[in-house]
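Project standup — Tuesday

K.O.: blocked on the structure for the chain from last sprint. Re-posting the sequence here as requested.
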Amino acid sequence: MTFAHAHLLGIEPLAPADITAILDLAESYVVLNRSEAKHGDALRGLTQINMFFEESTRTQASFELAGKRLGADVMSMAMQASSLKKGETLIDTALTLNAMHPDLLVVRHPQSGAVELLAQKVRCAVLNAGDGRHEHPTQALLDALTIRRAKGRLHRLSIAICGDIAHSRVARSNILLLGKMENRVRLIGPPTLMPAGISEFGVEVFDDMRAGLEGVDVVMMLRLQKERMDGGFIPSEREYYHRYGLDAEKLAVAKPDAIVMHPGPMNRGVEIDGEIADDINRSVIRDQVEMGVAVRMAAMDLLAQGLRARREA
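H.V.: unblocked you, prediction finished:
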């Protein structure tokens, strides 16, 4: 498999063939992860550094496990308590990293564009594990793999993304990916949680949950990102759940075989009813977690192949 990109900074630069290449390779890693051995050697001899300027238990654990299963030397740096708090700039951090000679750098940062800035300054492959409100590419890829495995395809589906669209990099990456793969995307949420200019993304926008969920194949719920809100975006969590929380009544208007997704962590009783989240016939939320490790293994494998090819050239 060929992957023409030196970094994975977002979905926006990827062609449909790039997306398919990552998902196809990830399928083989799903098989590996379910085997007794669980270890490959695609990253043997390489060093992976995880730099999380924002806390994220799931994403960091997933990247760490992915690197170790492929044989990399993995180091995770707790950036919240790092030299950045002592005044070090992002550029100084990049220069320090270059002196350590890493091969793969996984970065999560609260500022949009910070990961791309680092990628311009370091001599290794960089993976964006979420930057501000910009993108979270591996989350969209693992969501895509989950959908493809559940539905047998990743095109011409009707997919509803519901909730806090305005603050969600997950929503942005999914809108881009699902659009590239020829799906019909609906966004559902209160007007206060819709970003400006959203109609330019080629999506349908609804502020009524039942109207938006009518006949969809996939229901993707989003977390209310209260840490990114600086005003009264919703009247109350109780009112929000009444209007936009996914329960059996609202889900009933979707297709009978519609799947339910959530990137986690979930606020049960706010975005989603607990029984729906745990329904083994509808919910693929645990599958998303499993697919996350496989997708991150595939992404790092493809980037490492390119890195080695450039170094040998």
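K.O.: great, moving the ticket to review. The CA atoms of residues 34 and 290 lie 10 Å apart. Residues 285-312 form the longest helix (28 residues).
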